Amino acid sequence: MSPNKLRFYLDENMDPEIAEQLRRRGIDALSARDVGLLNVSDGVQLRYAAAHRRALCSKDSDFTNPANWDVEHDGIAYFPDPNVSIGYAVNALQELHRAETAESMENRLVYL
């Protein structure tokens, strides 16, 4: 995969099935469950995503405040609807993957 392709990390607030469906579509996506990061702080979630050059995907509104970003990161994809469906999330992230690169998402917050 090209190093500038957008890759995703879904925190524990996102259904891990979303990552599964993205992978089936050829998109590099991991969930907190995949990497054993359940029940950890928001800071740990963001630092993991940043360290692995992945855009963080979350429904956690704490990530919408730049004061909470303690590291440079590869983007945050925020879903404001706490009841977002798996299908909507998969389609929204697939479209984001088509439209953006890792570089274009650096330190950006995108509402989906």
Task: Give a summary of the structure in a few sentences.
The chain is an alpha/beta fold and 112 residues long. The chain has one domain: Rossmann fold, CATH 3.40.50. It contains 4 helices and 5 strands.
Description:
The protein has 112 residues and is of the alpha/beta class. It has a single domain, classed as 3-Layer(aba) Sandwich (Rossmann fold). The protein is built from four helices and five strands. The protein has helices spanning 16-24, 42-51, 86-99, 102-105; strands at 8-10, 29-31, 55-58, 76-78, 109-111. Strands 2-1-3-4-5 form a five-stranded parallel sheet, sandwiched between helices. Helix 1 links the parallel strand 1 (8-10) and strand 2 (29-31). Helix 1 (16-24) crosses helix 3. The chain is globular, with a radius of gyration of 12 Å. The two termini are 25 Å apart.
Topology at a glance:
Layout lengths: L7 E3 L5 H9 L4 E3 L10 H10 L3 E4 L17 E3 L7 H14 L2 H4 L3 E3 L1
Parallel strand pairs: 1-2, 1-3, 3-4, 4-5
